Predict the 3D structure of the following.
Amino acid sequence: MLVVLKESAKEVGREAARIVASSLRANPKSVLGLATGSTPLGMYEELIALHKSTGLDFSQATSFNLDEYLGLAPDDPQSFHYFMHSNFFSKVNFAADKIHIPDGAFRKDYSAYCEQYERAIRSAGGIDLQILGIGRNGHIGFNEPNSSLASRTRLKELTQETIEDNKRFFPQGAEIPECAITMGIGTILDARRILILATGKSKAASVAKAIEGPISSSVSASALQLHPDVTFIIDEDAAYGLTQRDYYRRVLELTKKYTPEKLT
Ligand code: GLP
C-alpha cells in the first residue's frame, strides 16, 4: 500500500488527476471506476483542465461509476448521474455509450439488474483504475459497515450517519434516499489498481482505521489492505490519525528512487 501525503486538498486532486491522465495516455482504452462526493471534485477539475490544455483524450475510455441513490432519476439534480454529467462528462470528450452509472430509478428485480452491471464490467475487460473516496464511517462506494468483504454490486441500505452526512447535497426538507445501488467490496477489489482519496479532519479516523487498523467489515475501506496495488492520496488533515507518517514519506522517497514506475 502506498500512502502519498499531500499538503492540501488541491494537491490531492492534482496528484490523482496526474495518475489518471498517465494511465489514459498509456492506454487510451482504459476502463475507469469513478466516484462521486466532494473529495474527487478537485481531480475532475484538474482532468478537465488537462483535457482543455493538453488535449487529454477520453474518447476511447470506458467508465463505471461506483453507486447511485435508489429512487433518483438520472435528471434529478441530487443523483450521481447528474453529478457526473455536470461536473465531468459534459466537460470532456467521453463517449456517451461508454459511460455506465447504476440506474437509481430502477424499481424491480434489483439482483438481476446488479448482476447485469457486474457482467458489463467484465465484458469491458474489468476496471483498470478505480477511484474511491471514503465515508466518515469508512465506507467505500456505499458499502456501509458490516458489508461483506466479498460483496458484489447490490442494493444497500444506508446508515443514518451516511444519510446525515449527505443531507448537505439535498435541498432543505427534501426526502433523502434510504438505499443505494453500489458496487460491492469484492467488485472494487477486482480492479487492477485503486486510488483512494481523502481530505479533511472529518476523515482522519476512518483513514487511520483503513490503513493501520485490522481488516474488518466494520470499516469497509480496510479491505483495501488485501489489494496488491492501492494508493492512498491524502492531505495533512486526513492523515492526522496515522502513526507511521514518517515511514510512509520514506517509502515514497524510496519508491521514487527504485521503482518510479509505481508512481506513474
Ligand atoms: C458518498 C459516496 C462515496 C464517497 C463518500 C464521501 O457516500 N457513496 O463514494 O466516498 O460519499 O463523500 P465526500 O467526498 O463528499 O466526503
User: Anything to note?
Assistant: Residues 35-39, 66-67, 133-135, 141-142, 162, 166 surround GLP (CB under 6 Å). Helices lie at 9-26, 41-54, 80-87, 110-123, 160-166, 185-189, 204-212, 245-258. The radius of gyration is 17 Å. The beta strands are 2-6, 31-34, 62-65, 67-69, 99-100, 129-132, 154-157, 179-182, 193-198, 230-235.
